[in-house]
Design a protein that fits this description.
11 helices, alpha/beta
Length: 260
């Protein structure tokens, strides 16, 4: 099953739903393209004044599909470079979207799913939500800008732990650290995010768009070049022995034995 994008607009809020619950809303290039196009159209649509990104079912997004990544290991490097470029374009479009975007996170936000949450302006999460940057566990480096955004949102040592060890971090701790804006009971993230987005949609969204542009210039002016660095690193590592062992071990449900 491929990840589909469901788009609904109500009360000035565009709801973007990653619709692949059978695979915990694992991402596909088709989803990224569709979401990028939806944001492009909504950027100039006066009927859309804010957006919410969420996942169908119990989880936000589990990131990329590792079975498809293993297939890329047997293809030319250019193939994975192109795939990551599609995700990069979505992240750029989210940061350049001239209206506020709120992530509504339940369950797992892993890998590129965590990246998409970070690319939003605001995050609402269920209390039991878990955020994970587990790229290192399969022998690759992150994509989607977390190696830029996490060290700017968290103390360097904590960001390093999340990226280098791939350990999960709970929504409660991210709320205490200021990465999650609002913490709600399980199952209430989307309701809270939509209510907040509708309130923002009634405000001066033109000014909010300018504020977002200023924030981007202050916090991540080098986003485009950093995404390219991440893409190069991921593409190099995907074809290296560590990633071959890491992905194989994950799919075979065993502990990885990385080459020494």
């Amino acid at each position: 099953m491929t990840a589909k994008l469901d788009v609904q607009t109500r009360n000035g809020v565009m709801l973007l739903t990653i619709d692949n619950p059978a695979q915990r809303n694992a991402l596909t290039p088709d989803f990224s393209r569709a979401a990028t196009e939806a944001l492009r159209l909504a950027a100039t649509d006066p009927g859309v004044r804010a957006a919410v990104l969420t996942g169908a079912g119990a989880h936000f997004c589990s990131g990329g599909n590792l079975a498809s990544l293993r297939e890329y290991q047997d293809q030319p490097r250019a193939a994975i470079v192109g795939r990551i470029g599609v995700l990069n374009e979505l992240v750029r479009s989210m940061r350049q979207f001239p209206k506020p975007i709120i992530a509504a996170v339940e369950g797992a936000a892993a890998g590129a799913g965590f990246s998409l949450a970070l690319a939003c302006d605001l995050i609402v999460a269920g209390r039991d939500a878990l955020f994970t940057m587990a790229y290192v566990k399969i022998g690759v480096s992150p994509d989607g800008a977390p190696s830029l955004l996490l060290p700017r949102a968290l103390p360097l040592q904590l960001a390093s732990e999340l990226l280098m060890e791939g350990v999960p971090i709970g929504a409660e701790r991210l709320y205490q650290a200021g990465v999650v804006n609002r913490l709600v009971d399980k199952g209430q993230a989307l309701t809270e995010a939509r209510t907040w987005a509708e309130k923002l949609a009634q405000g001066a969204t033109g000014a909010m768009g300018r504020i977002k542009r200023l924030i981007n210039q202050s916090v991540c002016p080098e986003l485009a070049s950093h995404l390219e660095l991440e893409r190069e690193s991921f593409s190099d590592l995907l074809h290296a022995p560590e990633a071959r062992e890491g992905i194989a071990a994950f799919l075979e449900k065993r502990a990885a034995k990385f080459p020494k």
